[in-house]
Model the fold of this input.
Amino acid sequence: MNRRSFAGLVAAGAASVVAAPALTDRAYADSGRRRGPRRKGPIVVGHRGASGYRPEHTLAAYTLAARMGADFIEPDVVITKDGVLVCRHEPEIGGTTDVAERPEFASRKTTKSLDGVPVTGWFAEDFTLAELRTLQAVERLPELRQENTAYDGLWQIPTFEEVLKLREKLSRELGRVIGVYPETKHPTYFREMGNPLEEKLVRLIRRFRLDSPNAPIFIQSFELQNLIDLRTEMRVKAPLVFLATVKGTPYGDTRSYDQLLSRSGMKEWAKYIDGVGPDTKRVISWNSDGTLGKPTSLVADAHANGLTVCPWTVRAENTFLPADYRIGTNPADYGRVLDFFAQLWKTGIDGIFTDNPDLGVLSRELTLGIEAP
Done:
C-alpha cells in the first residue's frame, strides 16, 4: 500500500472520531507520576515534527505535527559557531540541508570524531547562524520518502527559540497545550570543544516559563550524567528523560544501557530523572527472523521506579516495521503500522514517538479509546 492510498484510509478513520474538548494547562489530568505534564492518557510525540510528511526539524514539520493531533513536538538541539541553539538531528548537517551543493562551503567539509565515531561532512558548529540561514532543509530519506522531496529547499534551519515561540503560537491557535520535547544532542562533544548546549537551553526554557515540574516539556538525553548535571548543578525543575538504544553504552559511562535499565539499575538514578525513552525494541523485543516478539519487563520495571516510558520511533514504512507487519516487498510502502502501534499501546507505555503523528493519534483512539484532540 503506498503512502497516498494509506492517507485516504487514515482520513476516513479520522473523520469518524469526535473531537475532544480543547485542553488548557488547568485541564491536564494528573498522570500519577511525580513530575511531567498532567494529562489524560499516553501522549503522542511528533518525532522531529511530522517527519513522515515534511523534511524533519523544520517549522513546517512541527506545525503539521501539532495540527495532526500530536501532544508534543520534538526538536533535537545542536549549537552554532556563534553559540545559538538550532534544531538538527545531528551536528552533521550534510544529509538534512543543501550544504553539499553550496560551493562557498565546500572547504568546510571535514571528518570529526563524534563520541568516538569518525563522521565526515559539514557540522553546525562550524557555521554561524547567519551562514546556516543561507542553507535550506531537504528530506533526509529521499529514497523512502520521495514525496517529501517536493518540499526540498522551502524552509530554513530553525532556532530552538523559534520552536518555543511556535509552541506557544500553536497552543493558542489550536486551543490546547502543545508540549515540547527537546533533546540535547551529544552534550559532551559540544562541551569538550568549549561550546556547551546546556546553559543556553536552560536559560531559554526559563525565559519561556517551562522550568517547572508540571510544565509541558520533557528534556531528553542519551547521556545519563548530562541529565543528572541538569538536575543537580543547574537546578532544572522540568521533567527529564533518559534515552536508550537497544544495545550499547552511554557515551562516557562504564555501564551499559542493559545495566542502567534493569529494575535495580533504574533505582540508582530514578531520584534525578522522570522518564525513560527506549528504542521500541526494548519494550517489545524482535525475534531473530525480524518478526515481533514478546513484551519485555521494561515498562513494569520503570513504573515500579516511578518513571514514565515513552519509546521511539514508530514509522509507517515497511523497512522500519517488524517483518510480520510489512505489506509487500517495497521498503517504502506502508505496512501494518496501526497494528504495530496497538501492540505498543497495550504494554502500558506513557507515550510514543512517531514520524506519523496522525497515525499515532488514530491508533491511540482505536486501541485505547482516547479521542483525537
